[in-house]
Write a structure and sequence with these properties.
single chain; alpha/beta; Ribulose 1,5 Bisphosphate Carboxylase/Oxygenase; Rossmann fold; 2 domains; 4-stranded antiparallel β-sheet; 3-stranded parallel β-sheet; 8 helices; 9 strands
Length: 228
Amino acid sequence: MKSQSKRYRELLKSKSKEKKIELKEIIDLVKKNSTTKFDESIDVSLRINLKQSKGGDLSLRTVIKLPNGSGKKSKVAVLCEPDKIEEAKKSGADVFGSDDLIEKISLGKFDFTKLICTPSMMSKIGKHGKVLGPKGLMPNPKLGTVTNDITKAVKDIKTGLVEIRNDKDGNLASTIGRKSFSSEKLLENYKHFIDTVKKEKPDTIKGEFIKNIYITSTMGISYKARVK
């Protein structure tokens, strides 16, 4: 069994199982414990109620626009008609193209983290779902990545639009910022994130939708937050 590092053991000293910690204090502790040299991500992990009263499991997948952005840098590609290439270029997209971009995708020669596609190009990209799907890159209208408004879509992704999706066990996680963010900005992002998830609760779900919440950083320890 791998032994815990000296740094990790030191972090554990700041954690008390008996003490109930307020949200502001949790955020401050998570930031304080982000002692690595890089700008660690501040993350929220939820356990949501998947079981519906009439049977079946819930699948939650949506996007959330954080008020203060996520701090995550995305490399955005735009697949569009040739006459929209100039718009894609001006929108701030890192990669843009038409049939030439589809060719690169078919060959697996791409390194973007988000793909935006215009509706008329979806029929051409559909057959490459086996390549894009497993990487979470397949454009989806519900996630704002299939649109004719290229400029808005690129801006949203570049300024803090985060995608959330639960796994089969009801776990759901997302970043709410970076350790370089002020506690106030992280708190605002956190509250907006939780409120948005709560609004996604289907009418068929009985009881509390969010079962528990944990906040942590990339290399830190987690703290349990109260579900209100």
